[in-house]
């Protein structure tokens, strides 16, 4: 761990109190400004189509790139956090986000929007958001589950306020001036980063990962040098480059965890597949409502309803999941939330009436609350905290790929068929299949681990599970516990 990381993300002394709660407040605002922001892009969908004469698929690339970069910039964010600390990275992200939206207000084509609002703003949001999530893991230990749930309410606030503000500004001054104002608003990420002040670690409090470790391949290099090989030898230089490349991948992308940790592997694959359909309702619910005769103001209100309900449900979900009953079982709550999210999409298929869409948004919001409150907590459960930043990098870059291609592919399908129902068919398919995959896989993994522990315990003390040879009573055999009872009691 570098000095920058230790200063910016070090374990606060004392934790879970004092300035940690100010950091939590800053994280709430950060998540509202970053994760909550892409939800309002659907309000500009129709105006951007008319302005640039673009199709549904072409227009949907703009929010897709933004969200994909927001999640996929994790490895780069991890490198910057380890080098400069969380505070610097959050403030850098705020500058990039503001610059991207200000530049977007002057764009002359939809492709320019891909670069400014999509890439630059998305990358800035990534830096601010992921550095903010990382710092929470060090400031909170006892109340970490609650802190993550409370921080995720910022997304709910963003979902509530961004659409209302967007629709008002769009009606009053058009999309270009609205984007210009958005650039100024996103600069407030710098204020949040300033609150995440560096903390001086107590002596001897550095995590174990901060201790110098022998780098892989160093012994091989020493052996070659001891045999007389020159450090400038081409073969040795090539070997050194491969070793450093492997170390970088292991340090910032956690491929070693992905290969060795089955829980992390299942969870990453499941969430990556789920994200193919998770973002579709947020991108297309407003165009879908307008397409079916709902007024633009009412259509924008649908996203605000999702965010408003989230404000109250996410903390409750965090408190519930933090109970000791759910320790080690939060993945099942997460899978249940994803399943409910997928099933709720069938409501839109039944009817596009405004009252029905309100019901859909209410149920979708409850399911999203579970996903939002648990997604990072489950990740913290399956990997060690000292590798969380690296695990988060690989986790987010994989899900960003499906975030990127999901909406445009569905938009292309809508362009071909002129039927918005395929948006919700696709979303349901990916969400339901991912939920079943994660739930059933973790259940099988848990049973496998119990069997392994049971076999190990039996080998360590075999006489404990053998019948007594000296007892001649008929009921002696019945007193020996059945195999099933033995396995489930571990």
TrEMBL record:
Its main location: membrane. The chain crosses the membrane at residues 21-45, 61-81, 88-106, 112-139, 146-165, 177-196, 266-287, 299-319, 331-351, 357-379, 391-410, 422-445. This is MOT6 protein. PANTHER family: MONOCARBOXYLATE TRANSPORTER (PTHR11360), MONOCARBOXYLATE TRANSPORTER 6 (PTHR11360:SF21). GO terms for cellular component: basolateral plasma membrane. It comes from the Eukaryota. Residues 205-235 are annotated as: Disordered. The lineage of its organism: Eukaryota, Metazoa, Chordata, Craniata, Vertebrata. Keywords: Membrane, Transmembrane, Transmembrane helix. It comes from Callaeas wilsoni. It holds the Pfam family MFS_1. The keyword Transmembrane helix applies. It is found in: Membrane. Residues 20-451 form the Major facilitator superfamily (MFS) profile domain.
């Amino acid at each position: 761990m570098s000095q920058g990381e230790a200063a910016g993300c070090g374990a606060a002394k004392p934790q879970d109190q004092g300035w940690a709660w100010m950091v939590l407040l800053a994280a709430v605002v950060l998540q509202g400004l970053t994760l909550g922001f892409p939800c309002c892009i659907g309000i500009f969908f129709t105006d951007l189509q008319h302005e640039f004469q673009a199709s549904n698929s072409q227009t949907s690339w703009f929010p897709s790139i933004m969200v994909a970069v927001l999640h996929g910039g994790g490895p780069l964010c991890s490198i910057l956090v380890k080098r400069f600390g969380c505070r610097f990275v959050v403030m850098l992200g705020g500058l990039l986000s503001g610059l991207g939206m200000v530049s977007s207000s002057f764009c002359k084509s939809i492709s320019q929007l891909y670069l400014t609002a999509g890439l630059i703003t998305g990358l800035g949001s990534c830096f601010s958001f992921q550095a903010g999530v990382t710092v929470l893991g060090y400031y909170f230990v006892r109340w970490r589950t609650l802190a993550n749930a409370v921080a995720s309410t910022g997304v709910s606030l963003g979902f509530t306020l961004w659409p209302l503000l967007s629709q008002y500004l769009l009606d009053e001054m058009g999309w270009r001036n609205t984007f210009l104002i958005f650039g100024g608003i996103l600069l407030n990420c710098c204020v949040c980063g300033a609150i995440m002040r560096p903390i001086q670690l107590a002596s001897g409090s550095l995590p174990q990962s901060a201790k110098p470790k022998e780098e892989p391949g160093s012994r091989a290099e020493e052996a070659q040098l001891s045999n007389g090989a020159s450090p400038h030898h081409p073969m040795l230089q090539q070997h050194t480059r491969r070793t450093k490349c492997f170390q970088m991948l292991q340090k910032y992308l956690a491929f070693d965890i992905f290969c060795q940790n089955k829980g992390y592997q299942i969870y990453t694959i499941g969430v990556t597949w789920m994200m193919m359909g998770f973002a579709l309702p947020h991108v297309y619910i407003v165009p879908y409502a307008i397409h079916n005769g709902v007024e633009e103001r009412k259509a924008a209100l649908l996203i605000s309803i999702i965010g408003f309900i989230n404000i109250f449900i996410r903390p409750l979900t965090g408190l519930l999941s933090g109970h000791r009953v759910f320790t080690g079982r939060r993945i099942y709550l997460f899978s249940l939330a994803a399943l409910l999210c997928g099933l709720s999409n069938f409501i839109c298929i039944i009817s596009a009436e405004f009252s029905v869409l309100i019901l859909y948004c209410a149920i979708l919001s409850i399911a999203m609350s579970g996903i939002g409150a648990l997604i990072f907590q489950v990740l913290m459960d399956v990997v060690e905290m000292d590798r969380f930043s690296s695990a988060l990098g690989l986790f987010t870059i994989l899900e960003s790929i499906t975030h990127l291609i999901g909406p445009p592919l569905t938009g292309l399908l809508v362009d071909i068929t002129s039927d918005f129902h395929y948006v919700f068919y696709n979303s349901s398919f990916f969400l339901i299949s991912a939920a079943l995959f994660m739930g059933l896989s973790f259940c099988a993994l848990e049973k496998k681990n119990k069997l392994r522990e049971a076999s190990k315990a039996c080998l360590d003390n075999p006489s404990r599970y053998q019948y007594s040879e000296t007892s001649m009573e008929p009921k002696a055999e019945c007193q020996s516990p059945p195999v099933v009872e033995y396995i489930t009691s571990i």
